[in-house]
Design brief:
The structure is a single chain. The chain is an alpha/beta fold and about 300 residues long. It has 14 helices and 9 strands. The strands form 2 sheets. The protein has a 6-stranded parallel beta sheet with strand order 3-2-1-4-5-6. A 3-stranded mixed beta sheet has the order 7-8-9, with helices on both faces. Strand 2 (about 30), helix 2 (about 35-45) and strand 3 (about 45-50) form a beta-alpha-beta unit. Helix 9 (about 165-195) crosses helix 12, helix 9 crosses helix 13 and helix 12 runs antiparallel to helix 13. The longest helix is centred in the middle third of the chain and has 29 residues, at about 165-195.
Length: about 300
């Protein structure tokens, strides 16, 4: 009989992840503070819960996808929260991107009750969540990970057991810092090219075939030319993840430079009221500073 799965937090990222698990015929119970966020999942066969506690009461594996450390800590550790409500043997998996200190607070409390806890932050954005191609960075014990692996495989094929709890969110923070720096370097280079008279798709094709190539280049045809800044990964969330990376580096006494420059751009975007848009929207600020603009058109045109 298929394991019963619960999913708490079915917003931009959680909704497609929960949907892909549901497609693999796992019985599912879902909850979100926004009732409308659950509608498509309920129509697809999920049971609608009235609270996070009701989810954990009816599930053997519970996944959470929440905005930040305070939300995760409250959901798991408050009186009557997931750790208190979970039956012994339940596997609790947090998919959120949080400070490493958060899973380190949760795991011992869970173990004391005979409950398993894993952190499993994901990378790939909303598009990866929809396509079930996410990378999953798991921190925690190996045995519950193996039991939960069929469920996690439904959201992404690349499951990395990176170490004890805390290690997953360290790996995620490193990834997001590098992704942000790569993207901003691409945008600055593109601004120079456009102002010099180069076609943006020429820049894209040349650099893609050369040593400067990276996944960040795909933003040129996907977002920058069509001016599509609908959130795949929001500025506000990237700013939070850069805060996390900086905090980790400070604690370890590692000097960092590029992350600080990248965060200044994210702070500019927040100040401009762009926090809920995709991180690609930072290109509009670079354009203003450079007094240039990427010519608008259809992707690939």
């Amino acid at each position: 009989m298929a394991v019963k799965v619960g999913f708490i937090g079915v917003g931009n990222m959680g909704n497609p992840m929960a949907g892909n698990i549901l497609k693999q015929s796992f019985p599912m119970t879902v909850f979100d503070l926004n009732p409308k966020a659950m509608e498509n999942l309920v129509q697809a066969g999920a049971a609608k819960a009235g609270s996070a506690g009701e989810v954990v009461d009816n599930s053997e594996i519970v996944l959470t996808s929440l905005p930040a450390s305070p939300d995760v800590e409250a959901t798991y550790l408050n009186a009557g929260g997931l750790v208190d409500r979970a039956k012994p043997g339940t596997i609790l998996i947090d998919l959120s991107s949080v400070l490493p200190s958060t899973p380190r607070k949760i795991e011992p409390r869970a173990k004391a009750r005979g409950v398993h806890f894993l952190e499993a932050p994901v990378s790939g954005g909303v598009s990866g969540a929809r396509a079930a191609t996410l990378a999953i960075m798991v921190g925690g014990d190996a045995e519950p990970l193996e039991r939960a692996r069929p469920v996690l495989r439904a959201i992404g094929p690349n499951i990395f057991h990176v170490g004890p709890v805390g290690a997953g969110n360290i790996a995620k923070a490193i990834n997001n810092m590098m992704a942000c720096v790569n993207s901003l370097a691409m945008m600055e280079g593109l601004a120079v090219g456009v102002k010099a008279g180069l076609d943006p798709m020429t820049v894209y094709e040349v650099v893609k075939a050369s040593s400067g190539g990276s996944k960040a280049l795909e933003r040129i045809p996907r977002a920058l030319i069509p001016r599509d800044f609908e959130p795949g990964f929001k500025v506000a969330l990237m700013n939070k993840d850069l805060d996390t990376f900086t905090a980790i580096a400070k604690e370890l006494h590692v000097p960092i430079s590029f992350a600080n420059v990248a965060q200044r751009y994210q702070q500019m975007a927040l100040a401009a009221g762009l926090g809920e848009q995709d991180t690609s929207v930072v290109m509009t600020l670079i354009e203003q500073l450079a007094v240039t603009k990427v010519p608008q058109g259809k992707a690939g045109a």
